[in-house]
Design brief:
Chain lengths: 340, 340
């Protein structure tokens, strides 16, 4: 059984995203092609010339030069938004080599500065965001109002323009149905909780993203502290329920996670949905010390690779849905076998 | 895909059993204790003095000196009948060290001489049975009628006193429902087909025993030839259906057997019934060349060891049903891990 204060198995990652716009251009949805291209070039130059260590060796991704699979892969890695992937606008993403930093240009706003960290590290992520933000601010004119703060295309982002979010793995709360209480409580605290794979999907693999609803009337630090505190409480509840379930019937608990591991490492045909649900059990098993053949980092990597686009990239060509389920099973077996 | 003429994966074992009685004693159900003891001693001495190689190093099992688990274990290994295990009569079993030969004394008849071989080897089994039969016949007076042949307690055994049977693994015929046609056809040919685990149970693990109904009016050789021919035809049908199923959807086929292997080798709690059904899939997978981590002999051994009494013997003590499902899973994992 694991200590209640061990939170890194439950919190997969932390993300900070800042929305910013330039004063001297209309919002992206009102820009013409020339303006859009100007903004992309301007941001590219500013980043190229900057002396921020984390951005020293970035990748510049011209969205119009990417095919659908490549774009979808970036979405699956949470490096760009689904909206940017389908946009016809002249747009780009600037991505650090370690894929922790991503600056989207001409998404809903001129700039979306995003930093992702493993585990619960919102403060660290905010610090890097601020560094990039300051650098860009110095080199340009942000759209800023003394009354409202940063001006953004959508009013929900106005003010700090910050969205802080954590990705949580909550299998025990889902299994017992307590997740409903958590969702209600979070809503009352002005938090949004949703399934990881897009705004409209259910919580495949028991993975949820929790983020702030409000960007106005609080400082960035207050927002980060508030999310960190609430997430920590949710983790404590998840761990308490896990321990309770384990205490009630340790063998049934171990049986469930081990069987899922057996299926995941032996299936020859498997859908994304089934994979994510089995991975959820295996992740729980690893975190509870029941499964030792494979570690959390490896299972996180597999979770990413089995997404449709990443899978096709891995196989090296476009594949039909049927074959995808076969290749997905092959990939999972291969990745698990390496661990042994 | 496997050749249609490869029958050893489908036929697990062949068994010949002869029923014999002595002229100078009443049938077992009418004997008193003294007579019963005399018959046991008499047979023991005859076997002790014989010069049959296969019986040189036999084990004499006094049924009254055995506890229930030990008796049940012999039943699970098909070395004694369930009836002998629960009999209060003075009775015994003489078992060769390799457990291929078993002579039950004072079951329904004074003598039940049984020889089991792996694969389809009824002729070899009959040969050894005959050798033992001749030896015992020379040293005693069998109850024999010139009109009817060997006299037995139950009229269904009268004549040759022979029961020839083969144990078959027929997952594809069960899966497709064709097994019903096979059962009907066998019945018309005077064959009895039943699930392996006792006369009243279903066919757990898709394993069937096929044996002759009639012991009168045919020679031993004719009966053996007839069973061998019919069994060979059933095997051909089983293999044809397997190949057809595989051809229809090779990936779904492989997926099914591999998932079963994954569950079997990872479960922490498992019932006898589920084990036998998963073992059936794995056995099919081995036989079709899909699973290579483990061989047929090993899976046959596991199939035997997971039975309640054998399992308790393995653990070394009596265990409750709940714990049995845990120990069974442990044993299976251990046995499969050794193969890898």
């Amino acid at each position: 059984m694991k200590a209640d204060n061990d939170i890194n198995g439950v919190i997969i990652s932390s993300r900070i995203r800042l929305a910013r716009n330039f004063n001297d251009y209309p919002f992206p949805f009102r820009m013409n092609n020339i303006q859009a291209k100007e903004v992309v070039d301007k941001v590219r130059c500013m980043v190229f010339d900057c002396n921020i260590d984390d951005l020293r060796d970035f990748l510049f991704v011209d969205m119009q030069g990417m095919n659908d699979i490549e774009k979808q892969m970036l979405v699956e890695k949470h490096l760009i938004s689904p909206d940017l992937a389908i946009s016809n606008r002249n747009s780009a993403a600037i991505i650090s080599r370690d894929e922790k930093i991503s600056i989207m240009v001409n998404e809903e706003d001129h700039l979306r500065i995003q930093v992702i960290h493993q585990g619960i590290k919102l403060n660290d992520a905010l610090e890097i965001c601020n560094k990039i933000d300051d650098m860009l601010d110095k080199k340009s004119n942000y759209a800023f109002s003394n009354n409202y703060g940063y001006l953004t295309c959508c009013p929900t982002n106005i003010g700090t323009g910050i969205r802080a979010s954590v990705m949580l793995h909550l299998p025990a709360l889902v299994m017992t149905g307590y997740i409903r209480n958590i969702l209600e409580a979070c809503s009352k605290l002005n938090m949004t909780v949703r399934g990881i794979y897009g705004e409209h999907s259910g919580a495949l693999g028991n993975i949820f993203q929790m983020s702030n609803q409000v960007t106005l009337g609080q400082t960035e630090e207050e927002i980060v502290t508030s999310i960190t505190n609430i997430a920590t409480q949710v983790v404590e509840q998840e761990n308490a329920v896990r321990n309770e379930l384990y205490k009630q019937n340790a063998m049934a608990f171990e049986d469930k996670v081990c069987r899922s591991y057996g299926l995941l490492s032996n299936a020859r045909v498997i859908t994304t949905e089934e994979s994510l649900n089995l991975i959820s059990d295996v992740r729980l098993g690893i975190d509870m010390g029941i499964i030792n053949d494979i570690n959390i980092e490896k299972i996180n990597q597999i979770m990413l690779l089995i997404q449709p686009a990443s899978l096709q990239k891995f196989v090296g060509r476009q594949i039909a849905t049927d074959e995808r389920d076969i290749k997905r099973a092959e990939l999972i077996r291969e990745k698990i076998a390496i661990c042994k």
